[in-house]
Write a structure and sequence with these properties.
It is a single chain. The protein is 44% helix and 8% strand. The protein is an alpha/beta fold and 253 residues long. The chain has a single domain, classed as Rossmann fold (3-Layer(aba) Sandwich). A four-stranded parallel sheet has the order 2-1-3-4, with helices on both faces. Strand 1, helix 2 and strand 2 form a beta-alpha-beta unit. Helix 3 runs parallel beside helix 4 and helix 7 packs across helix 11. It binds zinc ion. The site of zinc ion (ZN) has 7 residues, from helix 2.
Length: 253
């Protein structure tokens, strides 16, 4: 079987993949930003890459030759201003990058390209949505929609999930060696909802009261929760991709 990652393929292997009936590019999008004292700056990209790989494997089982393409590990990262390692693009540049990448994958012969994102700052998500809307054949599997948000964890739905148990569980399941476990075991809960704070007009982690750049309950994270969440996020992707290809839903995993 060809690798699930496009970047691992040779040009001839890529050409073979493009001759299959439904070649689909899954584009992981993340950020470079602080995720508390216990998770790496690349957390969002690590999550998106793993979701794409899990979804690509499941799509292939259902006859769709999907592949996780190299990720875009930057985005609009303004809430994290003031912490070391917050590297932000403008919304305009983020939108243009996504638009051009989607158009390039379609021009290269992919039938569809699906953006898979795990950096949930509203200005960033809006940039992705605007970009995808301008490119026929591109789609955005967006966990901030009601349809998919309700399939995730309680902490995710409350909105205190930045670097909390939700994201920490996902890193534990994908790259456990990157979680500073001795640190996270001692982190007190920060039960502040990002979505509520945003509505109240607070626009940085510092203004919101997250003085170590995490929310929620990192100490409660488990690898098992992460494995379960990857399956749920992958279901979002496989369902959206199969609908875009006008194929029936996959058989229940
Ligand atoms: Zn994150």
């Amino acid at each position: 079987m060809l690798s699930l990652r496009l970047g691992d393929l040779t040009t001839e292997e890529c050409a073979a993949l493009l001759r299959s009936p439904h070649p689909v590019a899954l584009l992981p999008v993340g950020s470079t930003e602080p995720h508390g004292p216990h998770l790496p700056l690349a957390t969002d990209a690590i999550l998106s890459e793993r979701v794409c790989e899990v979804a690509a494997a499941r799509l292939r089982e259902g006859g769709v030759t999907a592949v996780a393409v190299p990720s875009l590990a930057y985005g609009v990262t303004r809430y994290a201003a003031g912490f070391a390692g917050a590297i932000s693009l403008s919304p305009e540049t983020t939108e243009k990058l996504i638009e051009e990448l989607c158009a390039a994958y379609l021009a290269a012969g992919f039938a569809r390209v699906c953006v898979v994102n795990n950096h949930l700052e509203p200005a960033h998500v809006d940039s992705l949505a605007r970009a995808v809307a301008r490119v026929p054949g591109a789609l955005f599997a967006n966990q901030l929609t009601r349809r998919w948000g309700r399939t995730l964890s309680d902490e995710f739905r409350r909105g205190d999930c930045h670097a909390g148990s939700y994201e920490t569980s996902l890193v534990l399941a994908a790259r456990p060696e990157l979680v500073r476990d001795d640190v996270r075991a001692g982190l007190a809960p920060v039960p502040i909802s990002l979505s509520v704070a945003i509505r109240e007009g607070r626009h940085t982690f510092v203004e919101m009261g997250a003085d170590r750049a995490y929310f929620g309950t990192p100490a409660a994270a488990t690898r098992e929760e992460g494995d379960d969440l990857y399956q749920r996020l992958a279901t979002m992707v496989t369902t959206e991709v199969r609908a875009a290809l006008e194929l029936a839903d996959e058989a229940s995993p």
